[in-house]
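Notebook entry, cofactor series.
This is the third protein in the set we're modelling with a bound small molecule. For this one the ligand is zinc ion. I'm keeping the input format identical across the series so the outputs can be compared line by line later. Sequence and SMILES below, as received.
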Amino acid sequence: MASAGKVITCKAAVAWEPNQPMVIEDIEVAPPQANEVRIKIVASAVCHTDLYHLFEGMHEDGFPAVLGHEAAGVIESVGSGVTEFQPGDKVIPLFIAQCRECRFCKNPNSNQCEKGWAADRYDVMSTEDSRFTCKGKKVLQFMGTSTFSQYTVMNQMCVAKIDPAAPLDKVCLLGCGVCTGFGAAVNTAKVEPGSTCAVFGLGAVGLAAVMGCKFAGAKRIFAVDTNPDKFEKAKVFGATDFLNPKDHAKPVSAVLAELTGGGVDYALECVGNVGVMRSALESCVKGWGVSVLVGWTDMHDVAARPIQLIAGRTWKGSLFGGFKSKDGVPEMVKAYLDKKVKLDEFITHTMTLAQVNDAVDLMKKGKCIRTVLSVSPQ
Ligand SMILES: NC(=O)c1ccc[n+]([C@@H]2O[C@H](COP(=O)([O-])OP(=O)(O)OC[C@H]3O[C@@H](n4cnc5c(N)ncnc54)[C@H](O)[C@@H]3O)[C@@H](O)[C@H]2O)c1
Ligand SMILES: [Zn+2]
Ligand SMILES: [Zn+2]
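Returned structure with ligand:
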């Protein structure tokens, strides 16, 4: 490629400061260093975690940054020492690494690789290092990925090579939301056939959790959301019952207890609200109920009465659905190509990178499931 080894100037949506719209700018993207690859981002969806960083977490040290972490693209060039990737390979950027060497990678039960931003900078959500500059300033790479940019540079341990047959404008969803929700049900909760589940929050993450519960053989799946517009989609992914907490005077956990003879077997929180996290735990049956925290928040403590756990409930959390990222994502791409999991049904809108703020507004207003942005022409 003619661009290999050179700085690329391209379009990116820069979040200069918290709580302000992103600005489309020309940014400079440095060539990949040792063990790094430069990726042309073809498609990127917007996930609530992008909104969280911009409008909810608002950690001042996390700006300026290029957001975006749910994407797919093509390798443009590779740095020294990279043998796994070649220009032209289709890839999905990974917001958690899989180095295959650390103690977490070697443990089959964890995906918490100790490399990358997620190891120690949860608050700022990026490493100090970046390959981006704009107007003479360093711009941070949010979640290490920064997919609201036509090009990005990542370490090869944070990139998954995928089937060349995969449509990038669909499989981008496997970069975060769909793997997260599906895996939270299948890998973390380990939903069993014949069980009863409840999923709180029906964005892409929650709908993917519904899909995971159904895939695992759950017989009854309660879909819980304060926005009743989401129920129709939840049915498409396998929900059997629908609950709007606002329709009931009692807490939703009490409603679920009545409907299920004491509570559900599994309850997944896909909102990012500590009150809902507690309510999901309390919706589980004593004795064996499992509740999984999936929603993202770092601003408040979670609370529960000890008796909830003493009585035999289990409280777990799930990052990226428990998938070891480099191994899991290509498998999920294959599952989509084999029609074992749905992706197209999550996509309610398509836009261009220049419309990224409109896509964010849609999500803020609860009017979309996923908007896929076309970032670079293919
Ligand atoms: N753990 C992870 O690895 C991981 C990965 C991706 C996203 N997330 C987090 O998952 C959450 C969901 O992401 P998304 O992209 O699907 O978001 P989204 O905004 O599309 O969906 C959230 C849904 O929750 C509903 N909701 C809000 N308040 C509620 C309440 N009190 N009770 C029930 N439902 C309520 C909303 O109406 C909406 O449908 C976010 O917190 C996001 O940051 C976590
Ligand atoms: Zn996400
Ligand atoms: Zn590792």
